[in-house]
Amino acid sequence: MKTAKKQEEKKPASFIEYLDFYKKNLRVFEGEKNEGVEKEVRIAFLSSFTTNGFKEVLSAKCHQLGLSPKVFIGGYNQYSQEIYGQSGELYAFNPQLIILFIDIRAIAGEYYLLPYSRTEKERQVWVEEKKEEIIALIKKIKEKSSAKIVFHNFEVPFESPLKILEVKEKFGWREAVEKLNEKIRESFKKDHQVFVFDYNNFISKIGKSNIFNSKLYYLGDIKFNLEYLPELCEEYMGYVKPLKSLTKKCLVLDLDNTLWGGIIGEDGLNGIKLGPTPEGRPFWEFQKYILSLHNQGVILAINSKNNPADALEVLRKHPYSILKEEHFASIQIDWDDKVAKMKKICQEINIGLDSLVFIDDDKANREMVKAALPEVSVVEMPEDPAAYLKKLESITDFNRLEITEEDKKKGKMYGEERKRLELQKAASNLGEYLKSLEIKITIKKADKFNLPRIAQLINKTNQFNTTTIRYSEEEVEKISKDKKYWILSVAAEDRFGDNGIVGVAIIKKEETKIWEITSFLLSCRVIGKEIERAILAFIMKNANKARASLVAGNFVKTAKNAPAADFFKKNGFKLVGSDKGQERWERKADSVLLPPNFIKIKEK
User: Fold this and answer.
1) Confidence band, pLDDT 50/70/90 cuts, at residue 9
2) Which of 77, 2, 79, 74 is nearest to 38 (CA)?
3) Fewer Cβ within 10 Å of end Cβ, the chain: N or C?
4) Radius of gyration (C-alpha) of the chain in whole angstroms
């Protein structure tokens, strides 16, 4: 099934519609080549109960993202056997994501309905035993797989045989399950490979009485109401998106009736709705949540048809405007069409259209952007501003598997970038501008402190990336311990501020004295400053020092990495071969490559 056709299809919504969608596209999901889909995702789902429907809905959800899904469903209540490798099928499947869903009835056994047949002490022992049992299961997975692991915590029972006296019981049944959840959460809080999905919170939002259908349970040991399966699988997509580098970078916002109520050009600064009033509070709290996203690394931009002076006055002077001018990396306020302004935002920030999420109260504007720029994720906003916050909270496009220090500083970094652009416009030529920046780079081997950022860059950098090979953090850590490899992180700073870690290089040292650059990538924020040449010069210098004979570089063309296409050629490498789309470039290690004289290089 071709991508273009897929985009024309009506998206399924209900469980039945998802099943129907899966059946109609059975050849796609069960092995036939899916033209136009480049990314495969392999998900293993292990559970303690009947899981009919999970494969179909998960596959369809992945397909909607342009992924080619392969979903492994473990045998009925065979999660332990699968994990300990008795069949060998789980690890032969080589999953990228493993979802482990053990329900409370299964783990509690006969004591689920007889919790007080145990003493207080016995309940405490039960919590410790089950915690250790779960830790052992996950430890075994980690021994055999580098997949990310999503473990469901347990539903806290809302019924108790003690009724109103449950809260009086010393270490009661509900408290025991809560304690088990707490201990599991704490056990994996610092584990980058394991994520505890708050299933108890998820079903509390829907309603625990809605999730469990007793008739389905008694008929077929189905412990999750399939009506809500699309909602649960959407939660899983919050892990799939960052895993497959499908997260978005920038939230683009309209202004009138989006960030405040009313039209600033007509209502004036004192007439718009914004602040602690019934009409203003929805916009006020909406802005607060947007700021919280910004503080975690989401880039903000404005796309508004407005008089710039009127609109900026709100950001600068309104007492209840949470968002200020300095929070936005790009501000496009004029009477040009919104499609043109969207392109300007991308040019100014130097990101792709597929990195944008667009919020606008006007349906006509949303439809125009969707039609002209299908790469942009357009949020279907509710008509009632009271529902804006809830809608924004439900978006998983900004999910990340880890928030780095660079993410937290990103807003400040983009503010500094605007100052650089102002300096560049004032400079008489590019050389003068680059010299005036006073660039310094620090090159450091991979270690436990920079590994998360290295993995993040590897998985999200598309433009200046010679091969776009993706590695999980666990895989990067494994490679870094191999003496044949050398993984470098590159941090950059200049007179305007610290950009943090912006570059990564992975070098494989062959026994034949050939140093092969298998990955070389640079953040889009620093493209055009010749930092890439400084890094390559550093690699060449060390290769010569180690008496290597050649330094080789690989380049694999993608739809987005044109900025890296001539990298090796520009730096004196010769093309020696091309096979299945991969170019191989070489240069003698003893040939001197000088770094730019305006960049200071420090090695740690």
Assistant:
1) low
2) 2
3) C
4) 27
CATH of 435-603, one of 3.40.50.10860, 3.40.50.720, 3.50.50.60, 3.40.630.30: 3.40.630.30
Structural domain spans, the chain: 3-243, 250-394, 435-603
3-243 under CATH 3.40.50.1110, yes or no: yes
* 347, 350, 356, 361 alpha-carbon torsion, rounded to 10°: -40
How far is CA 285 from its chain centroid? 24
CA-to-CA dists, residue 551 to 99, 293, 350, angstroms: 42, 42, 30
Per residue in 347-392, pLDDT (tens digit) is: 988 888 999 999 999 999 999 999 999 999 999 999 999 999 999 9
Tell me if 3-243 shares its fold with 435-603.
no
The residue among 55, 100, 54, 82 whose CA lies nearest residue 197 is 100
Task: Classify residue 527 as exposed, middle or buried by CB count within 10 Å of its CB (0-12, 13-18, 19+).
Answer: middle
Beta-carbon-side half-sphere exposure of residue 47 (alpha carbons within 13 Å) = 21
The DSSP call for residue 471 is: -
CA–CA distances in Å: residue 386 to residues 187, 257, 378:
38, 12, 19
Integer Cα distance of 50 and 40 in angstroms? 26
The number of residues in the chain equals 604
* Token pair of 31 as six digits: 């092995």
CA angle, residues 555, 505, 485, in degrees to nearest 5: 100
pLDDT in tens, 205-264: 999 999 999 999 999 999 999 999 999 999 999 999 999 989 999 999 999 999 999 999
Q: How far is CA 560 from CA 320, 351, 398, 451, 471, in A?
A: 41, 10, 20, 25, 18
Mean pLDDT of the chain: 92
Write the single-letter amino acid at 280.
G
| Residue that wins the pLDDT comparison between 415 and 545 | 545
* pLDDT for the residue numbered 176: 96
Tell me the C-alpha to C-alpha distance, in Å, between residue 293 and each of 112, 297, 390, 392.
40, 7, 14, 10
Residue 6 in this model has a pLDDT that exceeds 60:
no
What is the secondary structure of 568-585 as a DSSP string? HHHTT-EEEEEETTEEEE
For 96-154, the DSSP string reads: SEEEEE--HHHHHGGGGS-GGGS-HHHHHHHHHHHHHHHHHHHHHHHHH---EEEEE-P
- CB under 8 Å to 119, separation ≥6 — which residues? none
CA 182 to chain centre: 25
Q: How far is CA 122 from the centre of its chain?
A: 42
DSSP 224: S
Q: Are 127 and 188 in contact (CB under 8 A)?
A: no
CA 541 and chain centroid, separation:
36
DSSP state of 456: H
Q: Are 78 and 63 in contact (CB under 8 A)?
A: no
Asked if pLDDT for residue 4 goes beyond 70, the answer is no
% helix, strand, coil for the chain, step of 5:
45, 20, 35
